[in-house]
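Researcher: Here's the sequence for the chain we discussed earlier.
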Amino acid sequence: MLRNLAFYLLITFSFVIVSLSTQKVQGQIQPQNGQIDIVQDSLVDSLLELHLKYNKLNKKMDGFRIQIYFESGNNSKTQAIEIRDEFNETFPDIRAYISFKEPYYRVRIGDYRTRLEADGILKSIRREYPNAFVIKDQINFPKLYEEQLIDSLEIIEAPE
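Model: Thanks. This is the structure I predict for it:
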């Protein structure tokens, strides 16, 4: 019985505190104009410039691609080109890349930031490429959401 009374008092006290604090927040805080002064070492600016220069030179980032072909041999380059061209005809929205790392020619597709994105595409191409698999790779920077939105708006607005 004493435990029940203590529990009810604790709950009631908690509700009173919460309601008083929300009244203070809702009634007393006013937006104010102010000024923020940032004090930092000059090396921070030079480090930021160095980072921007590096990113302009290095147009790649860590990500995932789907490998649909991997072969060595006399005709492997020709086969890689044929598979890339065939893939581009079937899936024109997904870029395909041929790479050579001795002694293998590889055809990899897409530029995916997450494995989840790559797995989704892998499921859609699995019928045509049953041996395809997701692999970590250096990818091109994908389009940002805002750029994709602007592109789609331009397509919608184009016919007049």
